[in-house]
Amino acid sequence: MYPVLNACMATTITYKRIWQIAYPIILGSIIQNIIRVTDTAFLGHVGEIELGAAAVGSVFYMTFMMLGIGFSVGTQIIVARRYGEQRYFEIGKTTEHSFFFLAAFSIFVITGIEIFLPKLLPFLIHSDNILRESADFLEIRFIGLFFAFTNFAFRGFYIGITRTRVITLTTAVMAVVNIVFDYLLIFGKAGFPVMGIKGAAWASVISELSATLAFILYTVRFTPYKKYQLFAFRKFSRETFSSVLNISLPVMMQNFFSFAGWLFFFLFVEKMGEHSLAISNIIRSIYVIMLVPILGFSFTTNSLVSYVLGRKQSYLVKEVVFKTLKLCFLSVAVMVALNLIFSRALLSVFSDNRALINDSAPVLYVISGAAFFIGAGFILFNAVSGTGHTKFAFRAEASIFVVYVALTYLLTIILKKSISFVWAVEFLYGALLILVSVLFFKYYKWTQKNV
Quick one: residue 351, left, alpha or beta (phi over 0 = left, psi -120 to 50 = alpha)? Predict the structure, then answer.
């Protein structure tokens, strides 16, 4: 049976309930990150230039992809609120308008990238080798944005109604397809040409398409979509679209700034040299794995906060946040322990270059400590968004972005600190998220927001 919220939610939020919602998201995220790890592992055995270019290219792509994720989180907030209010018939209408917007927006972004990418990249990237390989990667990679945005609309719907196991299934399909085509296209196996970094880009595009098809098939076959009036394809409603956009647009921009900070981070690190960039790509691959449980519990917090507010149970928000924090910290502690015990073995997955492995180890220890701050920050900040006060969250994220980028620039370009010292900015980022979230719940009238 799929886990759904029931009458027991009226008085308490159990650890089991939180875990039942979170673990399919976490498992799906683990599988999704296998895709990124696979790309890095394969390209790490091709060369440092390809590894560094993939780092810049992937972060550049993810920065724009975060816009789609942000809109889907806004959709998720509204769907969860309607689910709590038991206004099921409005869920499909909200989701469909999310599909319409994300499809149109993805086409707009892809077109803009095709026009401006050749002019933009030389301005951002110093190394000619990294520039050439990054351009080859991104020209292909952005084709998959249409399918990725479609998948995010589905995710917003399913997380909002707490039927999250489908995310595991569709992401598993995506991972298998990506691994197979990474192997075939990067190295030129089974009659395919050797494509290197272009092969990694095409493998990702094909895998995103496969996930879209899996979502559609699953929804038609196993989801009571008529209950939610999904796929009714009603006429465009300006009122519904405005409601979705009002909540989602600030989350879009919040997520954009969040990941844009990481883009600037990698662009500044690129100025430190190809070796530092290769180290950072390896660390990024490990770091995103550590973020898996954090993001899973964060999405759960967001959805549950919106749900209990929809049921007029604001007194449960504190319980949701603290219990989710405990589960998140436990998950992070396990991963940090594995990092410390098996650090060399873990790093050797991404490269057989001994110098690269040795220089990456100190950075791994830094991010292991920062993960606790990031975990607490993400949980609390997603609770803020779950209340519907997404404009506050956007303004806070924008302010943190300015501080994060300025400090990274200072450490990399002005002070020329070591790569380990530079990665320590993640401690600051997590601490600032915690600070603004605590101030919000302490001083803001957060229960008075209609969604």
Answer: beta
* Identity of residue 342: F
Three-class DSSP category at 445: coil
Backbone angles phi, psi at 356, to 5 degrees: -65, -40
CB 293 within 8 A of CB 335: yes
Using one digit for the tens of pLDDT, what is the confidence trace for 339-386? 889 988 888 877 778 888 888 999 999 999 999 999 999 999 999 998
Q: Which residues contact 138 (CB under 8 A, 6 or more apart)?
A: 57, 60, 61, 113, 117, 121, 201
Which two tokens mark 411?
A: 């450490």
Cβ 294 vs Cβ 67: under 8 Å: no
Taking Cα atoms as reference points, which of 256, 233, 214, 245 lies closest to residue 109?
256
182 and 99 Cβ atoms separated by less than 8 Å: no
Tally Cβ neighbours within 10 Å of residue 82: 24
Q: How far apart are CA 95 and CA 106, in angstroms?
A: 16
Indicate whether this model's pTM tops 0.85: no
Check residue 32 and give its pLDDT: 67
Q: Looking up tokens 């110093």, which residue turns up?
A: 126
Chain center to CA of 445: 29
3-class state of residue 224 by DSSP: coil
* Tokens found for residue 251: 């989350």
CB 56 within 8 A of CB 284: no
The DSSP secondary structure of 9-23, one letter per residue, reads GGT---HHHHHHHHH
Q: Kindly state the tokens that stand for 58.
A: 């992937």
